[in-house]
Amino acid sequence: MSYIIALNFEDGVSRFIQCHADEKVLDAAYRQKINLPMDCSDGVCGTCKCHCESGKFDLGDDFLDEALSDTEVAQQMVLTCQMVPESDCVINVPMASTLCKTTPQTWTTTISQLTRLSDSTLELELECEEACGIDFLSGQYVNLTTPQGDVTRAYSFSSLPGANRLTFLIRNVPNGAMSHYLSELAKTGDRMTLAGPQGSFYLREVQRPLLLLAGGTGLSPLLSILYTLARQETKMPIHLIYGVSRDTDRVKLDVLQKFTERLADFSYQLCVSDPETSEPLTGHVTDHIHPNHLHEGEVDIYLCGPPPMVDSVMSWLQQQHITPQHFYYEKFTPQTAEISA
Questions:
Q1: In whole angstroms, what is the distance from residue 299 CA to residue 77 CA?
Q2: Is this structure's pTM higher than 0.85?
Q3: Which tens digits make up the pLDDT trace of 32-80?
Q4: Which of 212, 264, 286, 291 sits most deeply, having the most CB atoms within 10 A of its CB?
């Protein structure tokens, strides 16, 4: 038996390692050529101290109180030289990945399908050549490079972690270099390189109701989160508000509807900012956040969208004097480059 350990470094890089039963995390990392900080490796100095964000583990009793206090133990701080996982774990490492002699992983993939979902949104499906698929935390992104190696952009997964089939919702940006390649040049079988995963926007352990807020292709990481929640058979209430600019920007509504059947307590709303919309809800996502979605602050909020939307939600929460238990957000800004004729 082995467990998957996600190591999240300060510079946003995540690396995933396999840790055998009864193996210490530090030993597993070194076995897989990741030099986590250490000095004594006996639970004495505290150099290898990290934070376990989720998962079960055993620290044993072979370390001194000076290395890890009772308060730190209560805060899920761990010594990786003593930590033996008892489940999959997520560990935050207080150091840049480069200082641990590691970098983002890279994979070669091939385009298996490319679909224009709307004028503004493309869905890219890639097949990974690695038999084991790609591990990431739902909500994270990778840097995607064209076959020619001349364009690299960051995109969030919309698919389930660990699968060979990878999907992304990509905004079709006018004069965008990646958009030009995908909409005009790409073909099935093209090879694209991925580097990552990266990012601090990802699903944490579910301990309370969730409010998910998506703007445009910001729906992509939230779909990945929903797939994971469905796999975990989450019972907590989950509500998604999905905002777009125009009716033609609406995508994946059929998938969202299926989640109402797969998840025990999931609901969603679509709102369109264009006043000429055929949808019943107009305006912005903040116009449709109701008190029952916030559970008197006992809620975790996940927000992904363009910077004006993220700033608007943050301002709205302040104006309403609402402080959720946790508020995770990701801003994305489409990058453009002039395309010569």
A1: 24
A2: yes
A3: 999 998 888 787 788 999 999 999 999 887 666 778 888 998 999 999 9
A4: 212
Q: Letter for the amino acid at 69?
A: S
Please name the residues in contact with 49: beta carbons below 8 A apart, sequence gap of 6 or more: 67, 68, 72, 77, 78, 79, 94
pLDDT bracket for residue 166 (50, 70, 90): very high
H or E, element range at 214: strand 210-215
**Distance from C-alpha of 239 to C-alpha of 304, rounded to nearest angstrom:** 14
327 vs 269: CA distance, rounded Å = 20
Is the CB of residue 143 less than 8 Å from the CB of residue 153?
yes
Tell me how far apart the alpha carbons of residues 205 and 55 are, in angstroms, rounded to a whole number. Answer: 9
Residue 228 near residue 318 (C-beta atoms within 8 A): no
Percent of the chain with pLDDT over 90: 81
Strand order in the sheet with 238-244: 266-272, 238-244, 210-215, 300-305, 326-331
Q: What pLDDT score does 38 carry?
A: 87
List domains and CATH numbers for the chain.
Answer: 2-100 (3.10.20.30), 105-198 (2.40.30.10), 210-331 (3.40.50.80)
Task: Label residues 206-242 b or e (16+ Cβ within 10 Å = b).
Answer: beebbbbbbbbbbbbbbbbbbbbbbeeebebbbbbbb
Q: What's the Cα-to-Cα distance from 257 to each of 188, 251, 253, 263, 339, rounded to whole Å?
A: 29, 12, 6, 10, 38
Other Cβ atoms less than 10 A from the Cβ of 333: the count is 7
Query: What values do phi and psi take at 224, rounded to 5?
Result: -60, -40
| DSSP code string of 246-263 | SGGG---HHHHHHHHHHS
Give the separation between CA 90 and CA 138, rounded to whole angstroms.
12
CB atoms under 10 Å from CB of 39, counted, come to 11
Identity of the amino acid at 95: M
